[in-house]
Amino acid sequence: MKLGCHAVLFKERIKEDTENIIKLLSSTGFKGSEIGSRFFGTDDKEYLLNILDRYNYQITGMHIGSPLEEWDINCEETTNKILKVAEFVKDMPNKNVIMSTKRFSGTQEQLIKAAKNINNAAIKCQEMGVKLNLHNHIWEFENDGYIFNTLVEYAPNLNLGLDLGWVYASGFDPIEVVENHADRISYVHLRDINENNEFVDLGEGIIDFNKLLKVLRNTLGEDGWAVVEYEHGEQDINRYIRAYNFLEKQM
């Protein structure tokens, strides 16, 4: 299992000040970072690769937001957006597209149609050697996991890039969810949460990472990624340094 951190903490700075941000991220102990297509875009691949090579650092994957409604009503354009990100990562060591959704208010029929269209996109990604991973938030697990379970059933080629902090916040057991879907998991996000269901830095909350990491090591194997995501708060690289040191002690 490889440990990474998410560049989303630095928002648009990953685009505006790429080299300095990669330099900072590479100083944490983590081996790679996820970046967002909404911040970096997909036009400056060679520029990024040169910087990554300079600092012996990797991109763990690229994130893209993709509302479920769009998979129902605008499938072709939505698929093309996914494939554009897949094209960006396909020549990298870690060929991961991380796709998140938004709250869905459509019918079950529309959701099933969206899931089937996502599955077709996942197959096209596979043909490029790329994994399409679902990054969940809390809403996929509402109503006893209705959306999550529908996507699992009707998009069997979709990998599950679980955000285990959101899984915990939804009232589900992250370990149980991982174990139930282990064959579809090679990429996860790590967060910690306090008793008020608020995200906090790793080690400051109530998640048992010692127990969780044991399960993740078995599930992810040598090549899978566990990526710490700090989305909000102070843009201080020391937060990620502390997170790395915390995880190392737990392992």
Query: What number is the mean pLDDT?
Result: 97
Helix-strand pattern: EHHEHHEHHEHEHEHHEEEHEH
Radius of gyration: 17 Å
Proportion in helices: 40-55%
User: Can you tell me the CATH superfamily?
Assistant: Divalent-metal-dependent TIM barrel enzymes
Number of helices: 12
Strand order of the largest sheet: 6-5-4-3-2-1-10-7
Shape: globular
- Reported by name, the CATH topology is TIM Barrel
Number of domains: 1
Decide which structural class fits the backbone.
alpha/beta
Low-pLDDT residue intervals, each spanning 5 or more residues = none
**Span from first to last CA?**
11 Å
Largest sheet: 8 strands, parallel
Quick structural overview:
The protein has a single domain, classed as Divalent-metal-dependent TIM barrel enzymes (TIM Barrel). It contains twelve helices and ten strands.
